[in-house]
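About this split. The held-out portion is used to measure sequence recovery: a designer receives only the structure tokens and must propose an amino acid at every position. Recovery is the fraction of positions where the proposal matches the reference. Here is one held-out target exactly as it appears in the evaluation file.
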């Protein structure tokens, strides 16, 4: 399971679809609707949120918005829009840098053109809007 901190716009088609499916699984875990993945490290930051289900739904809403820009047919009934609600989580600068390199390595294999475009054209890595970047190394929950 990989719930990216970087903005979903950077993902290739395979990555965005995987993110959608894995985040839906995470939502089900947080809602207590599944027995597996309960202690998956990627869930720690959502579990620690003031409102874990709101956090994961807000996360999904942005992934859904990205799917619309690509004319994908993700099912908006799979999550609850947060509406006017807002919630922010933190992510460390080191985590963003780690994920960026991880993504570039994946794209070298799956989509070399996208990999080159991102490597050359991105000056500042945007994060998923639910996150605020803070100083620090790779997150403790990350499996390296």
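Reference sequence for scoring:
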């Amino acid at each position: 399971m990989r719930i990216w901190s970087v903005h979903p716009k950077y993902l290739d088609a395979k990555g965005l679809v995987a993110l959608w499916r894995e985040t839906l699984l995470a939502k089900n875990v947080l809602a207590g609707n599944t027995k597996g993945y309960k202690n998956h490290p990627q869930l720690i930051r959502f579990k620690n949120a003031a409102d874990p289900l709101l956090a994961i739904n807000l996360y999904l809403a942005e992934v859904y918005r990205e799917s619309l820009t690509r004319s994908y047919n993700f099912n908006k009934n799979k999550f609850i829009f947060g509406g006017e609600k807002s919630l922010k989580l933190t992510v460390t600068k080191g985590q963003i840098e780690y994920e960026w390199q991880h993504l570039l390595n994946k794209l070298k294999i799956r989509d070399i053109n996208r990999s080159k475009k991102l490597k050359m054209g991105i000056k500042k890595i945007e994060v998923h809007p639910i996150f605020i970047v803070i100083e620090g190394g790779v997150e403790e929950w990350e499996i390296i």
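Annotator remark: The CA atoms of residues 30 and 47 lie 7 Å apart.
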